[in-house]
């Protein structure tokens, strides 16, 4: 599957890692952003990495020789970073979003990206062998448990959207709110994934890849 555009929101503060910008961190001598871009390069035409403002010389050293655009902005949310990437490149009919702390090396099933479901969005999911996957998940908004899912699959930081989804992203809901909106509208399909997956949250996660 070839996507016209990949957007990597990578401007987070890394509050659980002492404020480190995760895309700069190294795993086995290779930066996190390089792991991400190397995996996704065969699947995408253009790529833009949305990074935090503040160090243009470092950004030029990092991205200057790469076949990727970078966009230093001050964006408080993932949604805002996605929209900045779309303003920079324009909004294609379909585009891919991969969070800047999400590493994969396996295989995705893009089966729904064909007529008659091509207009739908997707969120990657993975089954696992953690306590979370062996237990159950609850939705406890408003002080009440409103939903229970036994042995849930885990959502990942990989999404595909269409330009029809811009109303969901142009809001203060955040990425989770946008996904809930699309789910309610019946516009979000799962993208099954098999292989290794790492969401970098704590410093010790860097040893797990």
Helix and strand layout, with pairings?
Elements: E1 3-9, E2 26-27, E3 30-31, H1 32-40, E4 44-52, H2 56-63, E5 69-73, H3 78-89, E6 94-98, E7 102-104, E8 107-108, E9 121-126, H4 131-134, E10 136-139, E11 147-150, E12 154-162, H5 166-169, H6 174-184, E13 188-194, E14 197-199
Parallel strand pairs: 1-4, 1-6, 4-5, 9-13
Antiparallel strand pairs: 2-3, 6-12, 7-14, 8-13, 9-12, 10-11
Sheet with the most strands, sense and barrel status: 8 strands, mixed
Total domains, how many?
A: 1
Briefly, what CATH class? Answer: Alpha Beta
Low-confidence stretches: none
Overall pLDDT confidence: 86
CATH architecture: Alpha-Beta Complex
Model description:
The structure is a single chain. With 209 residues, this protein is an alpha/beta fold. The protein has one domain: Spore Coat Polysaccharide Biosynthesis Protein SpsA, Chain A (Alpha-Beta Complex), CATH 3.90.550.10. Helices cover 23% and strands 33% of the residues. An eight-stranded mixed β-sheet has the order 5-4-1-6-12-9-13-8, sandwiched between helices. The radius of gyration is 17 Å and the shape is globular.
């Amino acid at each position: 599957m070839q996507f016209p555009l990949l957007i990597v929101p990578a401007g987070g503060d890394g509050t659980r890692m002492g404020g480190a910008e995760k895309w700069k961190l190294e795993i086995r001598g290779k930066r996190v952003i390089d792991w991400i871009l190397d995996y996704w390069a065969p699947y995408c035409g253009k790529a833009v990495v949305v990074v935090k403002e503040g160090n243009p010389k470092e950004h030029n050293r990092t991205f200057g020789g790469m076949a990727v655009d970078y966009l230093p902005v001050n964006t408080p949310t993932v949604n805002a970073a996605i929209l900045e990437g779309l303003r920079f490149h324009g909004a294609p009919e379909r585009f891919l979003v991969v969070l800047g702390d999400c590493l994969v090396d396996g295989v995705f099933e893009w089966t729904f990206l064909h007529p008659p479901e091509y207009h739908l969005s997707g969120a990657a999911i993975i089954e696992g062998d953690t306590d979370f996957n062996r237990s159950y998940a609850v939705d406890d908004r408003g002080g009440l448990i409103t939903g229970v899912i036994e042995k849930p699959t885990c959502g990942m930081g990989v999404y595909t959207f269409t330009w029809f989804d811009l109303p969901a992203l142009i809001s203060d809901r955040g990425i989770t709110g946008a996904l809930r909106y699309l789910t309610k509208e019946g516009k979000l399909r799962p993208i099954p994934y098999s292989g290794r997956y790492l969401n970098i949250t704590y410093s010790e996660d860097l040893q797990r890849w």
